Structures are given as structure tokens and as C-alpha cells.
Amino acid sequence: MKGVSALQPSAKTGSRPDIRSVTLLGATGSIGASTVDLLKRERGRYRVEAVTANGNAGQLAQLARDVGARLAAVADPAAYRELKDLLAGSGIEAACGPESLVEAASRPADWVMAAITGAKGLEPTLAAVERGAIVALANKECMVCAGTLFMRRAAAAGATVLPVDSEHNALFQALGAGRREDVSRVILTASGGPFRTWTTDAMRAAKPEQALRHPNWVMGAKVTIDSATLMNKGLELIEAHHLFGLPSEMIDVLVHPQSVIHGMVEFRDGSVVAQLGSPDMRIPIAHCLAWPGRLDGPAARLDLAKLKTLSFEEPDTIRFPALALARQAMEQGGAAPTVLNAANEVAVGEFLCGKLGFTGIAALVESTLDRAERRGMTREPTTAAEALEIDHVSRSMASELLLEIAAKAS
Ligand code: MG
Questions:
Q1: What is the distance between the alpha carbons of residues 341 and 387, in angstroms, rounded to a whole number?
Q2: Tens digit of each residue's pLDDT (9 = 90 or more) over 104-138
Q3: What is the mean pLDDT of the chain?
Q4: Are 171 and 253 in contact (CB under 8 A)?
């Protein structure tokens, strides 16, 4: 993996070398909750420097006390008063505003969980990367919207980027079985989501509560909807492209409804090395937390005899056009993945609040990509500010196109 450097926690903190200091960006989401669960089981091995959230002061304050964090920061300034009151007497510092998330990421922790959802996670995550931390990357959007610059900065700073996304974590583990030059392709598995067997007509009428019912994984709303459209797998293609430096033709997607095999690496001699496990995010998170070691994970052990059957099928890009759109954007490169990601965030938001039909999500993304290209928005962002500017303009374009697409797709 690009940007991977040797692990030297003691050199960075001056603290006990056997205790790893950690910061959780996006601590109140589902990845944050799983990370906190592991940290509580491994008390004595980790010390928590900072925890951040968007605006849920109550949950963040509780969590900060539970893990004994030094700093708790909320992005939303309106949540500051409540956070400060709830932390009174605890000795835990409170902070607010988007800049406080960057400050939290900049503090000297050996290991940072980057789990802020969406493009707003980019700047705090880059702050952690730029001071050479070990960054467990759960935010795929920041890799999609600024992957080239992200990996370049990580390499320059000597940061270690560990993939938390279960598929990429699986590939990272499987890649350890051989030399990079001997890899012939990697395979990302996809559950197929709740609409795997649905017709396009049925999907057109799908309601948010149906799309939110993922068959295997319990996750946040954004990623669950992305799983239903297969845009999640599309974003993961782009993520794999940047993380592992692989071209499009070396990254395949395979639908595997049981979500037991998370990723596979095929080597040139025909060997295929896979990583398997129960669909529980605490497995890849535990791998990142203890890397390069291992810890005693609480996830259910895989019982293949009980499962009996694992099945596979080709992804259907006619019924799930988002996957094809993402691959196209990846191959096109430049600003296209940034536009794709921003338009998708808008589309998912509008679907969740009932303003856009399910099939309208991919349609809105496609129209936004077309409009961006027609307007000459093609240049790849070279700074975080440029990436966020493209993100911002793309969101406006998607919002402008919303009514037209919503009418067509209903
Ligand atoms: Mg995934």
C-alpha cells in the first residue's frame, strides 16, 4: 500500500510504547460506536486523545466520559453549550466548529479513526495524514472526492493509511500473501443490497424504509442507501483504485449475498487469496486498531458448516446503473469522481426526505456529471480547497437538476 510506514507509537507521543493513543473523528456514528466498543474491551492498551461528532452533544459527552477522552469537539457551534455543560467537572476539554475537528485531528495521537461521513471529513482527515499519523480510513467519500491528493499527502508525510471499509480491509490483508507485481486482479464483493432481486419498476416505487433495510450489515443511513443503489460498490471501486494504486481493469466486483467473503486477490499463478469473516465491522476495525498485531475480537466466529452455501453472481449494471457510472467516472478521472460523490450525497439526502424516487438517485448523479462536463469542470483537484469547491458547485448543480429528474424518475 502506498504511504505505509513503520509503526513507531512511542516516538510520536513520548508515552508508554505499549499504549497507543487514539482519536476518533466521527465518534457517534456506527463505526465510532464499534470502535468505542473495542476500546472499552481493551482498556489499558489504548488512551483516547480526542473524540468528535457533528452535533450530537449528548452522545458525544457520554462517550467522552466513557473512554476518558481529553478533548471532545462538535462541528455544530449550536451544540457547544450543551456539550460544555455536560462535560462540566470532568476535566475533558470542549470545543466546537469545523476548525475544532481539524484541531482534534492535529493533536498528537498515534492512531486516528477517520469516520466522518461525507466530503466534510476531508479536511480533518488530511490534518491527521499530514502529521504522519496512522489513519484508519472509514470515510470513503474523501478518498473518492480527493483520492490522488490524499494519497500523495499521505506518502509525503510518511502517514500510514489503513482501510476500515470491510472490502478494502480484506484486500489489504489478502495482498499480504504476495508481491504487488504478482497481483493479477482484486475482487470486491457486494451483498447486492435489499433490492438485489427487484425489478427496475419495483425499485422506482421503493420507499426509504425499504432501502434502509440492509440484509447483512447494520450501518449509517447514507452507506445503507448507497448499498441499495450499488453506488457504495462504485465508490469502493474508486477507493480501491487510489488505496492500492490499481487501474480499473484490475478491480472487479462480484455480488455475494451472504457477505462472508469480503474481498479476494488473484495472483498471476492463479491463486486466489480471500479474507472471510462475519459481517461485523468490529473485525476490520479491530484489525486496524491493533495493526500490525491482532487483538481478541468480540465478533461472532464464522461457522461455515452452519451457513452451508456461499453464492455469487455478476453485478447487473442495467438495474443498478450507479455502479457503471462510478466506474466511468473513475476511468475518466479528473473532477468526475468528485462530482459523482457530491451529486450522490445530494441525491441520497433528497431520497431520504422523500423528494426523489429511488431510481432518481442514479439519474440525478448522471445528469450532474453531464452538466459538469459540459461546463468544463474536468480538472482534477490538487488541493483540499479545490476539491471542496468542486464538491460545492456539484451540489448546487445537483440541487438545480433535482425537480426535473424527480419528475422524470417518478
Ligand atoms: Mg464496504
A1: 11
A2: 999 999 999 999 988 889 999 999 999 999 999 99
A3: 93
A4: no
Cis peptide before 124 (omega within 30 of 0): no
Could you tell me if 134 and 227 lie in one domain? no
In a domain, residue 319? The reply is no
Alpha carbon of 226 to ligand 1 centroid (Å): 10
Q: Does 123 share its domain with 257?
A: no
Q: How far is the CA of 264 from the centre of ligand 1 (A)?
A: 13
Nearest to 365 by CA among 398, 320, 396: 398
In a domain, 188, yes or no: yes
Mark which of 114, 143, 164 sits at the end of a domain: 164
**Cα 191 to ligand 1 centroid, rounded to whole Å:** 10
Is the same domain home to 252 and 193? Answer: yes
Shared domain check, 156 and 29: yes
Boundaries of domain holding 267: 168-280+302-307
pLDDT score of 16: 59
Burial tier of 98 (Cβ tally within 10 Å: 0-12, 13-18, 19+):
middle
Percentage of residues in the chain with pLDDT exceeding 90? 90
Q: What is the pLDDT of residue 260?
A: 97
Ligand 1 geometric centre to CA of 310 (Å): 18
What's the gap in Å between 210 CA and the centre of ligand 1?
A: 20
The kind and range of the H/E element at 162 are strand 160-163
Alpha carbon of 239 to ligand 1 centroid (Å): 10
The residue length of the chain stands at 410
49 and 27 belong to one structural domain? yes
Q: Are residues 175 and 153 in the same domain?
A: no
pLDDT per position as a tens digit, 347-368: 999 999 999 999 999 999 999 9
Residue 340 CA to ligand 1 center (angstroms) comes to 18
Q: What is the pLDDT of residues 19-36, one digit of tens each?
A: 999 999 999 999 999 999
Q: How far is the CA of 95 from the centre of ligand 1 (A)?
A: 31
Domain count, the chain: 3
